[in-house]
Design brief:
With 190 residues, this protein is an alpha+beta fold. It has one domain: DNA methylase specificity domains (Adenine-n6-DNA-methyltransferase TaqI, Chain A, domain 2). 39% of the residues lie in helices and 18% in strands. The protein has a 4-stranded antiparallel β-sheet with strand order 1-9-5-7. The protein is globular and about 60 Å long.
Length: 190
């Protein structure tokens, strides 16, 4: 499995690395992968050797509560720093990203089994050595290119939906406190 892509681990951050919200880049933890950037998201201006991710990256969370944390994600946000416990999955060719995404999704039961086997205090993890034990089918370039061509519109749609989700979350976060404070009212149509 590890011959098909490079699994680059995220970076560790400590309290001194963080800056004021909205300054620098957001630090992606598993919560941000699942919920997007929120008011709880931490930011970092710069840190040497930090792993940066950009829109369209393929990510694999490898640590946490197996049933809720171990998963494969497509990241469609803006530039960010990647926190530990998440691999940035880099394929040799960009055209192989769709195949690798599907492959990693199909291997989730294996990842959960690895994590449960090492579970302590509710947390488990998937190590690189676990990934090395997986034998997977790898189709020839021509088939992967055809798969990429067929799935590209769906990946674009996923990105567009994520953009819309982000807008809706921001709108909700701005309007809800004002609604609760009575600063805005909902107009009811008769």
């Amino acid at each position: 499995m590890t011959e098909l892509a490079e699994f680059q681990n995220g970076s560790t951050f400590n309290m001194l690395d963080f800056c004021a919200p909205g300054q620098g880049l957001p630090v992606l933890k598993i919560a941000e992968l699942k919920q997007g950037i929120t008011r709880q998201t931490r930011y970092c201006i710069h840190r040497d050797n930090a792993r940066r991710v950009d829109r369209g990256e393929l990510l694999l969370s490898w640590s946490g509560t197996p049933d809720t944390s171990i998963d494969t994600f497509l990241y469609f946000g803006g530039p960010a720093w990647l926190n530990q416990h998440i691999f940035k999955v880099v394929t040799p060719r960009p055209e192989d990203r769709a195949y690798m995404f599907g492959l990693l999704r199909s291997l989730k039961p294996n990842f959960l089994a690895f994590a449960r086997a090492k579970q302590t205090t509710g947390l488990g993890h998937v190590a690189l050595k676990d990934l090395r034990t997986l034998l997977v089918a790898y189709p020839p370039v021509m088939m992967r290119d055809a798969f990429d061509a067929l799935t590209a519109p769906y990946f674009a749609k996923i990105g567009a939906c994520d953009d819309l989700r982000s807008i809706l979350v921001t709108t909700r976060d701005e309007l809800l406190p004002r609604l609760m404070a009575g600063e805005v009212r909902i107009r009811r149509e008769p």
